[in-house]
Amino acid sequence: MSExxxxxxxxxxAEDDRPREKLLLKGKxxxxxxxxxxxxxxxxxxxxxxxxxxxEIMDKAGNNLIELSKLSVNDLTxxxxxxxxxxxxxxxxxxxxxxxxxxxQALEKKKITCSRDAFDILTPFLSDRYTEEFRIxxxxxxxxxxxxxxxxxxxxxxxxxxxxxxxxxxxxxxxxGIILAHNHPSGNRKPSDADISLTKKLKRAxxxxxxxxxxxxxxxxxxxxxxxxxxxx
Length: 233
Fold this sequence. Notes:
Elements lengths: L18 H8 L6 H9 L8 H11 L4 H5 L3 H7 L5 H24 L6 H12 L6 E7 L5 E9 L9 H10 L4 E7 L9 H17 L2 E9 L2 E4 L7
Parallel strand pairs: 3-4
Antiparallel strand pairs: 1-2, 1-3, 4-5
């Protein structure tokens, strides 16, 4: 795209350089993240086109959509000239729809055959969070997911997972196996001493009840740690 276009309103750009027209002509995959956001906000400000303003927003978010999704309406309106409440809400709503789409796709994949299957189901629920949350996947004898449940939420550095609540849910759903999971907002995948201790405690209890702990997944925004894969169960 020529630099001259950046000096003109989008309506004056060549048709195949305008985000909406580009989407129609070349398909949605041809657009950058900034161009897609430009379609959402519709217009820029006195000094920047919608695309330039959208690129500024992406730059501030480290060109990472997960980081962008953490911004609130107030963050967007206070940090970016030309972004009012309506535009900020449009951005947040679009990102939330994208997240829910991932969740819907994950729910279609019911059978767990490896740690990656569990991660794919859990990551829409546990990524993109400032605080820890503890979840469990309850499985039947064929390793198909019966339920995906939140057990507890905590602060930045920890959460409480009540063993009584976990096994109460497992018994109520006639589960044969459990996959434990929680997130680390810090981004550190390594389990803490508390994570290791809790996993061992729950495994012993599960063995006694014949409701087996099959894995414990620690989710971060860029990957995961599996106790089963690492031989830590």
